[in-house]
Amino acid sequence: MARKNYTGKDITVSFDLDVCQHAAICVHTLPAVFNTKRRPWILADAAPAEEVATVVSRCPSGALRYELVQH
Ligand code: SF4
């Protein structure tokens, strides 16, 4: 499965299900953004971009990545 992008106004988060180890750090730390019961399951704008970036960088598998949107 290919890496999928979730684009917000300040940050774009991408996710690769094949890489995810289901450690659930993302959903536990920032459920407003990461919620597997919702589609799309990532809402990149549901928290400040710095908070989203911090959680993404704590993903142990590298399944999550981010890129800040240049304004
Ligand atoms: S933190 Fe990373 S490895 Fe863990 S569930 Fe989220 S995307 Fe998957």
Structure, explained:
The chain is of the alpha+beta class. It has a single domain (4-68), classed as Alpha-Beta Plaits (2-Layer Sandwich). The chain contains two helices and three strands; from the N terminus they run ββααβ. The protein has a three-stranded antiparallel beta sheet, with helices on one face. β1 and β2 form a beta hairpin. The longest helix is centred in the last third of the chain and has 10 residues, at 49-58. The protein is globular and about 30 Å long. The site of iron/sulfur cluster has 12 residues, from α1.
Order of helices and strands: EEHHE
Structural class designation: alpha+beta
Number of helices: 2
Side-by-side strand order of the widest sheet:
1-2-3
CATH topology: Alpha-Beta Plaits
Roughly how many Å is the radius of gyration? Answer: 11 Å
* Count of individual beta strands: 3
List low-pLDDT spans. Answer: none
Output mean pLDDT: 97
Distance between the termini: 30 Å
Beta content comes to 15-25%
Regarding quaternary structure, what we see is single chain
The major beta sheet can be summarized as: 3 strands, antiparallel
Count of spatially separate domains: 1
Q: List the ligand species.
A: iron/sulfur cluster
The CATH class is identified as Alpha Beta
Q: Can you tell me the overall shape?
A: globular
